[in-house]
Amino acid sequence: MKFSHRFGFDPEYKNEPISQDAPNWLKNMFFLKVLEPLLYVDGDSRVSNNEQKPLGVKYLIERLCAENGQETDQEDYDSWTCWDALKFRMGALEWYQFYDAVEIIGEIIKANEYLYSDILGSNDFESFMYASYRQKVNDLFSQHKVQWKLSESGCLESSLPKDLEIRVQQTDNQLKDQFEPARKHYAKARAYILSPSTDPENSIKESVSAVESVCKALYPKTATLGDALKSMKKEQVISPMLITVFEKFYAYTNSEPAVRHGSDKESKVLEYDAELALHMSAAFIRTIIQRRR
User: Fold this and answer.
1) Whole-model pTM?
2) Burial 139-151 (b: 16+ CB within 10 A, else e)
3) 57 and 187 co-located in one domain
């Protein structure tokens, strides 16, 4: 991640998970780092493809235009301008069309893999295979917190089930104004579990920290999440039995090695544990805010 993104100086870069968006810088990075090394100018005998690259620029433009109901023009078929035409068209895609294009490109690469099977030294063409393309896409998306990853079948998938993803997004939308610190914790929790390079221990820690932040905002005189939960029990705004459930969960996060505290024991936390923590925290945060209102 570059300097201006790491420290938040670029106004167009938001250091938070990306799901239903495809910023221009992401499209440009995809074109430069993933797509461009696979391209060659096709349909012109004057231009040779000595490196045996798998993606013809003109064919790809034609395919993307067909998928999106767009007309091609003269620049798309001109060997001197088609490269820039493709780059322009990629940059002009809507966010969902961009992710469609990522899948379509993978589909074309898969379909062309057979061309390399009979070539002497076919191992030299591994960078043109789908496995390499998939790895580069997922590395790029993971680095920039894009919450999609390309599967072996060629589909972009979210790490969370659809119904949970909806609830997670609703929770994020509620964490505004006085709950902004909690929103930052929650964004980290999502990023740690949704990115291809998952970190379930830190995701659980940030999920609980998000709940703690909300509770402290609502009960400013309390010092810890445990104190806030005790205050909630006294008020009986939420059933004490439900609060007890979260008290037990809070105790689990404190005692589980490598979650909230360092340990000399190996972590046994799984991705599914982090998903459960994210789900529980989302539900608890929404309940707290709605009940208090």
Assistant:
1) 0.60
2) ebbbebbbbbbbe
3) no
Closest CA to 214 of 177, 179, 250: 179
Identify the domain containing residue 248 by its residue range.
162-292
275 near 193, Cβ under 8 Å? yes
Q: Say if residue 70 is in the same domain as residue 135.
A: yes
Q: Are residues 71 and 199 in the same domain?
A: no
When divided into structural domains, the chain yields a total of 2
> 12 is written with which tokens?
């167009």
Q: What is the mean pLDDT of residues 11-31?
A: 86
CB count in 10 Å sphere of residue 59: 12
Distances (CA, A) of 186 to 72, 163, 179, 194, 278: 44, 17, 10, 12, 8
Mean pLDDT of the residues in the chain:
86
211-224 confidence digits (pLDDT tens): 999 888 888 899 88
Domain-ending residue, one of 125, 157, 189: 157
Encode pLDDT of 257-269 as tens digits: 878 777 777 888 8
If pLDDT is split at 50, 70 and 90, which confidence band does 167 have? low
Residue 73, phi-psi category: left (phi > 0), alpha (psi -120 to 50), beta (remainder) = beta
- The percentage of residues in the chain with a pLDDT greater than 90, rounded to a whole number, is 37
d(CA 87, CA 81): 10
Tell me: do 70 and 207 sit in the same domain: no
Distance between CA atoms of 232 and 196, rounded to whole angstroms? 37
Same domain membership, residue 53 and residue 141:
yes
Q: Return the structure tokens found at 149.
A: 């990853």
Amino acid at 252: Y
Please check whether residues 144 and 204 belong to one and the same domain.
no
Q: Which residue has the tokens 């940059």?
A: 91
CA 140 to chain centre: 10
Report the amino acid identity of residue 208.
Answer: V
Six-digit token string for 114: 């057979």
Gap between the Cα atoms of 53 and 56, Å rounded: 8
